[in-house]
Write a sequence for this structure.
């Protein structure tokens, strides 16, 4: 079905290249912006010397940056403690993994993606068809909806993606009357049963969700092909939505109607994606949006002019509006103060902030962030989900 995709591409491809150029430029400006935002407070610390990092407490030990276990129980937890504003992208071998490639996955046979359901022109796309129209899709963050302190919040990473917009494929297949949603499904059979997860991976999106998020079928990350564990040969990436909707090993795209039932995967993740119960029908699901969130990634200990000082380094991500002020507090009984070096210039991927801190006395401190803007929903942030604690022994 190569020919069906070909004719449209010249114009679109051109546009996409321009767009990608724009995205890159923005990314670049923003990165230097972050650098200078941190520069202000770097000056205060320039005269000093970093003497250590204070570990977070209350987070059980977990192996970081290494793939472990298999299939649905397979994980790689990204170590976020060394994040730097100038290295926004997570190297592919450290990008978090939730579910490793199945021993049953046969990527040696020619891979095909069937596009069908309520379309006028069903397609059978080969990998070659997609490769020919693959383009840069920019830097995007992915977070697992199950990301929590038991894994040091390390189910969170950023890659520089390449792929094919889903909307482009749908344009070619032409939606038939009654087609309002799209089911995207991937290979998901494993030799052994998982104790924690259900097999079967598919998610249903509205056309609008796919279009406005710029959802794409990804073929590459950071200038390389996907790895098997990240969904080789092809996976879905929906910027701004939780990873559970970013189906790996995609083999089917099906346009469905308003009466489509929710999938087992949507039901499994209903709680974590903030759904009202476990709806039967796909249309009763809210988009699995990553709301605005923020957390510290490390607390540095410095010796500055004979004094001990601390510097908290963190990230903000998610949401769809830029926030002006991010506030921080150390322990619930203290009041929130604005984070010193913070300037958000985009919601996706993450951006960085720093805050200098002089605790009054030794002790345990819980570090929490807040966004005081009624227009910015922060349910998970406000629930205390991303609070991280440190024991301070020297002030
Ligand atoms: N086929 C398939 N796709 C899947 C999953 C899965 O178990 N099977 N897990 C999902 C979940 S819960 C997450 S968070 C992301 C993780 O993608 P990554 O492992 O590349 O980081 O993949 C999603 N896609
Ligand atoms: Mo996930």
């Amino acid at each position: 079905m190569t020919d069906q995709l070909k004719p449209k591409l010249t114009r679109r491809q051109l546009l996409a290249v321009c767009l990608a150029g724009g995205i890159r430029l923005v990314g670049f400006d923003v990165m230097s912006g972050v650098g200078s935002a941190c520069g202000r407070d770097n000056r205060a610390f320039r005269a000093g010397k970093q003497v250590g990092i204070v570990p977070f407490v209350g987070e059980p030990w977990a192996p970081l940056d290494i793939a472990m276990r298999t299939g649905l129980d397979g994980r790689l937890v990204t170590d976020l403690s060394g994040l730097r504003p100038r290295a926004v992208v997570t190297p592919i071998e450290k990008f978090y993994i939730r579910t490793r490639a199945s021993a049953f996955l046969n990527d040696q046979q020619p891979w095909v993606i069937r596009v069908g359901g309520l379309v006028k022109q069903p397609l059978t796309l080969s990998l070659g068809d997609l490769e020919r129209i693959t383009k840069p899709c920019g830097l995007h963050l992915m977070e697992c909806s199950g990301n929590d302190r038991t894994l040091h919040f390390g189910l969170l990473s950023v890659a520089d993606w390449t792929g094919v917009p889903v909307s482009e494929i749908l344009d070619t297949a032409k939606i038939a009357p009654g087609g309002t949603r799209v089911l995207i499904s991937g290979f998901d059979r494993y030799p052994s049963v998982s104790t924690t997860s259900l097999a079967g991976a598919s998610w249903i999106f509205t056309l609008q969700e796919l279009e406005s998020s710029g959802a794409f079928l990804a073929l590459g990350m950071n200038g390389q092909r996907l790895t098997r564990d990240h969904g080789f040969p092809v996976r879905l990436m929906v910027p701004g939505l939780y990873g559970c909707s970013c189906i790996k090993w995609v083999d089917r795209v099906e346009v469905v109607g308003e009466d489509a039932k929710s999938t087992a995967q949507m039901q499994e993740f209903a709680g974590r994606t903030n759904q009202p119960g476990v709806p039967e029908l796909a249309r009763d699901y809210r988009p699995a949006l990553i709301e605005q969130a923020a957390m510290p990634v490390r607390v540095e200990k410095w010796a500055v002019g004979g004094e001990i000082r601390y510097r908290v380094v963190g990230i903000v991500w998610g949401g769809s509006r830029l926030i002006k002020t991010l506030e921080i507090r150390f322990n619930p009984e203290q009041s929130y103060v604005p984070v010193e070096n913070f300037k958000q210039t985009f919601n996706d991927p993450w951006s960085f902030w720093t805050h200098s801190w002089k605790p009054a006395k030794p002790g345990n401190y819980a570090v929490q962030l807040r966004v005081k803007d009624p227009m910015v929903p922060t349910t998970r942030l406000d629930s205390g989900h991303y609070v991280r604690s440190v024991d301070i022994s020297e002030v």
